[in-house]
Each structure stands twice: as structure tokens, then as C-alpha cells.
User: Fold this.
Amino acid sequence: MAININNLSNTGQVKQKVDQQTQLKQQNAQNATNTEQAKVASKDSFSITPQAKQLGDLQKKIEDSPIVDQKKVEELKKAITSGDYKINPEKLAASIASFEFDLAESV
Assistant:
């Protein structure tokens, strides 16, 4: 009659325990790797090129500037009121024709 002390002859259970421990170690290692990758990812950085910074500054200036040049408008009003504003009919006609031509091309 054989005596089974602590299930030594039952290798299936021992193998199962070893497999479980191995899986736990692998999961812990994977979790550690994922944590390291997350730390590295959080250290990512970026930098703005001088050209991009300059472009951003120009856009801000444009947004802050008035749409209409009020000084120019006042000068034109004074010139029209005083009669000093002269219209060149040929130049005006050429500008209107050019505008119409450009408008027709864009449609």
C-alpha cells in the first residue's frame, strides 16, 4: 500500500500551481511594462518653430487691428469735401472692367 504524502504523486495539481504562478509573473511583468510606457508617453513634448511663433504673432496682430483704416477714411472725406479728390475716369473704368473680369473667372 502506497502512502500519498501531501499529494506528491499528484503532479497535475503541482503543475497547475506552477502554471498559475508563471502566468501571474507574466501579467505583473506586462503591467510593469505598460506602466513604464505610460510614464514615457507622459514625458513626450513638442516645440514650436520660430516661424510658427512668428505666424501666431502676426495672426494676433491681424485680429487686434481694426478692419477699416480710419485715418485713411478721414483723409478721403476731407479731400472729397474740399474738392481736392480727383477721379481719373480711365483708371476707374479699367478697374471696374478688371474687377468684372476677375469675378467672371472665379464663377
